[in-house]
Amino acid sequence: MEQLTQARPVAGEISQAAAPETIRLQPTRGFSRVLALRELWRYREVGLQLAVRDITVRYRQTALGVVWAVLQPIAFMVVFTLIFGHLAGISSEGLPFALFTLAALVPWTYFANAVVLGSDSLVANSAMVSKIYFPRIFIPTGVIAAGLLDLAISLVIFFIIVFAWGEVPAVTVFALPLLVLITVVTALGVCSGLSAINVRYRDVRYVVPFAIQIWLFVTPVAYSSTAVAEPWRTLSAINPMTGVVEGFRWAALGADNDCGILIAISAISAVVIAVAGLAYFDRVERNFADVI
Are 188 and 275 a contacting pair, CB within 8 Å? Predict the structure, then answer.
């Protein structure tokens, strides 16, 4: 009895331990929802699972699997080489035209697929959006992160082809992570903005594939930006993918295209697009469950 009496907590300790946690709900402002690092970290496992799910779903019940990640840029390389290289005779800055186009198609294919899939990602996951809470930005971000696997595979095959062609990348190859980062930031901005718009206006799913085709020819994928006269060449870098594709040629193949200014402008443009896309996403996110 004495031991029980000593082990029994006092009444003040009981009330203090049983006191419920007070949670205050209040409206968010600015980037407090999209870029709330504490909340994003709290739901990090959800974001990881969404990315893993996107990878597995993408290649589920496919005969070729991850080969599709390589087949698309190589197919475009063959077509562009025949049409633009042999028939149209477009200059490739002294590089083999096949490598010239493939260096641009590797980042472009990743970006195009990320935008097409990411812009429709919220609607495709409408059941999750309407039933449970988690940072909705994880949905388009998961698509972008899953595509990095395709990009990594494409880069490996690209460098195998480069070495087989007899080319040896210079030290500039270490600039590739920066160019990949610019591509990811651009895709994040475009996907977050378009996916949010698509929740209310489903026309986006029809507009995006058409817009990507136009964006392809505005970007110097099948031709060099040096074919564009100044100041239009510099202004073209407002399109972030201009600096990326020219940077890939410079970094991987040593192309002498003087693309430092283009990369800098494209990097700034990518940040602006990302901020604008995330700002709009944050503004309308609270209405997703009601509208979708």
Answer: no
Please give the Cα distance from 77 to 75 (Å, whole number). Answer: 5
207 contact partners, CB below 8 Å, separation of at least 6: none
Q: What is the percent of the chain with per-residue pLDDT over 70, rounded to a whole number?
A: 86
Question: How far does Cα 195 stand from its chain's mean position?
Answer: 13
**Residue 33 structure tokens:** 């929802």
Confirm if 191 and 114 have CB atoms less than 8 A apart.
yes
Q: What pLDDT is stored for residue 51 in this prediction?
A: 86
Cβ count near 75 (within 10 Å): 12
Q: How confident is the model at residue 107 (pLDDT cuts 50, 70, 90)?
A: very high
239 to each of 58, 67, 215, 265, 274, how far by Cα in Å?
28, 29, 9, 9, 13
Cα dihedral sign, 89-77-141-252 = negative
φ, ψ of residue 255 to 5 degrees: the values are -65, 135
Q: How many helices and strands, by DSSP H and E, does the chain display? A: 15, 0
Query: Do residues 207 and 201 lie in contact, with contact meaning Cβ atoms separated by under 8 Å?
Result: no
Closest CA to 113 of 58, 48, 171: 58
SS3 category, 159: helix
Other beta carbons less than 10 A from residue 37's beta carbon: 7
Instruction: Please state the pTM of the whole predicted model.
Output: 0.84
